[in-house]
Amino acid sequence: MRPADLARRKQAGLPITVLTAWDALSGALVAEAGADAVLVGDSLAMVVLGHPTTLPVTLDEMLHHCRATARGMASACAAGHEPLLICDLPFLSYQCQPDDAVAAAGRVLKQSPAAAVKLEGAEPETLAVIDRLVRSGIPVMGHVGLTPQSVHRTGYRRQATDAASRERLRTAARALEQAGCFALVVEHVPAEAATELSHTLTIPVIGIGAGDSCDGQVRVTADLLGLTGSQPPFSPPLLQGRSLALEALRLWLAAQSRPSSTTAPAAPHC
Ligand code: KIV
User: Fold this and answer.
1) Which of 2, 73, 102, 173 is most open to solvent, judged by the fewest CB atoms within 10 Å of its CB?
2) What is the tally of structural domains in the chain?
3) Gap between the Cα atoms of 199 and 213, Å rounded
4) SS3 assignment, position 57
5) 223 lines ligand 1 (CB under 6 A)
6) N-terminal to C-terminal alpha carbon distance within the chain
7) Which domain holds residue 167?
8) Which pLDDT does position 79 carry in this prediction?
9) Ligand 1: does its nearest atom lie under 6 Å from the Cβ of 218?
10) How does pLDDT run across 210-256, given as a tens digit for each residue?
11) Does residue 269 lie in a domain region?
């Protein structure tokens, strides 16, 4: 799958599916399950590295997780399903100087198998960076609505809830399309706002917490599998993965503390 294939799916009226992954195990799962694209999102800072926000994760860490994810995806790719691999540019890797942004995104494409980067926001400086990246041959996915790298400004509140902020969302989305983004993540906004963007933009609009009528959907896989302690209200789990894992582990631990006569015989050493 290439970035342009996502636009083709939109044109053909086919839904686009994106799942996050962070290591070989999760990369194998989401690729084998058949996701169109795999996002190594900076949410891994919270989900995998235990940080309170996405801000602390570094570019080196993102690259480390991106390469591991790609290794996990290899078996699905060998079997003929090759999802697009996208890597988030972490906080402050693209906001300071356009040259640094090109270097950071260039490292992602040179030092991992990712074929695209994602970055947040549509400030004039960000639009200029996207223009530079795209002209350098680096496909860029945009991200508007709730942008977790701005948590200290916006919190995790739903965005575009009044007329003025809805207009800002429209303007930002249009500008990102014009700057050359191949797709746009729209997070935690009213369904009507995201639906309108899906209808008015030619690039695919990939929603999370943005209703069911976007061109595609993205989910944090750990939320979907119920592996995280709690999930955002707009991303309910499909199964209680954490409880199931805890139950299995406790059963195993309890079995170890039983008298040896009741436990299964140990495998013979060769
Ligand atoms: O970092 C991430 O996982 C994301 C998704 C929520 C889209 O940006």
Assistant:
1) 2
2) 1
3) 10
4) coil
5) no
6) 46
7) 3-257
8) 87
9) yes
10) 999 999 999 999 999 999 989 999 999 999 999 999 999 999 999 99
11) no
Distance 21 CA to ligand 1 centre (A): 10
**Phi, psi at 42, each rounded to 5°:** -75, 0
- Do the domain assignments include residue 266? no
User: Domain of 69: which CATH number?
Assistant: 3.20.20.60
Q: What is the rounded distance in angstroms from the CA atom of residue 156 to the CA atom of residue 232?
A: 9
pLDDT, mean of residues 192-196: 98
Domain assignment present for 96? yes
Question: Chain centroid to CA 93: how far?
Answer: 17
Tokens of 81: 């399903």
What's the alpha-carbon Rg for the chain, to the nearest Å? 20
Q: Would the pTM count as exceeding 0.85?
A: yes
Report the nearest-CA residue for atom 4 of ligand 1. 41
Asked about 32 being catalytic, the answer comes back as no
Is residue 42 in contact with ligand 1, taking CB distance under 6 Å?
A: yes
What is the torsional sign of CA 128, 144, 218, 228? positive
Taking the centre of ligand 1 as the mean of its atom positions, its distance from the CA of residue 254, in whole angstroms, is 37
Closest by CA position to 35, among listed 108, 72, 85: 85
Query: Token pair of 226, please?
Result: 């119920």
CA 244 to chain centre: 24
- What was the pLDDT predicted at 257? 87
Selected catalytic residue, list 32, 187, 192, 196: 187
Strand runs labelled E in 56-104: 84-88
Question: Closest ligand 1 atom to the C-alpha of 47?
Answer: 3
16 and 8 Cβ atoms separated by less than 8 Å: no
Residue 8 parent element (H or E): helix 3-11
DSSP assignment letter at 239: S
pLDDT value of residue 270: 43
